[in-house]
Amino acid sequence: VVLFGSHSYHTALPISDVDMCCVLPIEKDGTQFLQDIAALLTKMEAKDAGFEKVSVPKETTRHKLDRITAIFRGVDVDLATSTETPGNFEGCQGSGAMELMRRKSIAKFGESFWSAILLFKCLCHGARVTQHHGEGKHEQFKAITVMFMAVAWLTEALVVPADGEVADPAAVAFQQGYKTCPVIVALRFLVQCFLQFDFRRYAVNITRD
Q1: pTM
Q2: pLDDT tens digit string along 17-36?
Q3: 3-class DSSP string for 94-141
Q4: How far apart are CA 199 and CA 12, in angstroms?
Q5: What is the pLDDT confidence band of residue 140, given thresholds at 50, 70 and 90?
Q6: Could you give the 3-state DSSP secondary structure of residue 196?
Q7: What is the C-alpha to C-alpha distance for residues 30 and 66, in angstroms, rounded to an integer?
Q8: d(CA 151, CA 189)
Q9: Cα 80 to Cα 87: distance, rounded to the nearest angstrom
Q10: Which terminal residue of the chain, N or C, has fewer Cβ atoms less than 10 Å from its own Cβ?
Q11: Vertex 113, ends 109 and 115: CA angle to 5°?
């Protein structure tokens, strides 16, 4: 069993759900496994063992059962399955990439880098820029999407030009400020980037087809 989602890359908020993925051998039927787990949790729910609202999404011709949801002592829990490796479940792929970026950015720029990312996520959540758990997406962003943008913006701003390249004066000023008060300077920079970014011009539409 492995964690994915915000808990796995250390940006969980107090209201964040817990995402878990059970990695099964290739011969194991994931659908049947989830149905068996759901039946077990439903029995535990009846015994008042801490579980409630156990939900099994309906399978369709386009959507195979790949996760179940429940609430355990007030915390939303998503349980998914994957075959052989966590990366075979699409929900774990983005989490794995984000955790790799977290480790590399901290190694290169320090803990303050990720602290600023977490605070930016908190601001986006409070301003309802990102969708809240259990709500429809509508015109809001997924939290991990906002975080990928923030990591890209902040990394670009902190990259030191190679020898012979002309440094951007604005980037130099930002990097000097980051050295003195990294979290506040980085957070202000991320807010400015988000407010000034032209989402209509650089929009990317992704469909299942």
Answers
A1: 0.77
A2: 888 988 888 888 888 888 88
A3: HHHHHHHHHHHHHHHHCHHHHHHHHHHHHHHHHCCCECCCCCCCCCCE
A4: 26
A5: confident
A6: helix
A7: 7
A8: 12
A9: 12
A10: C
A11: 150
